[in-house]
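User: Structure please.
Assistant: Input sequence and predicted structure:
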Amino acid sequence: MFPLFNAIQRKAWVRAQKLCHELVLCDPERKIYHRLYVRLEQITNLIDQQLHPQSVIRQAATASNDEKRPSQQLSQ
């Protein structure tokens, strides 16, 4: 537990997420570990979006283009 709290305190989010995942595997019945893991995943995703905003925009554009294609094929 101490390494997890230490990682959170140092804002080493990826390390904290990995340690939390280990806790979930060791004790899957504890829902608090699952919630903490989800929260850490949200934090790492937000940081990733801030560091790589162009890749997020490209992914969104690709996803919207993929959604439009089936309807275009039906109308032809």
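The radius of gyration is 19 Å.
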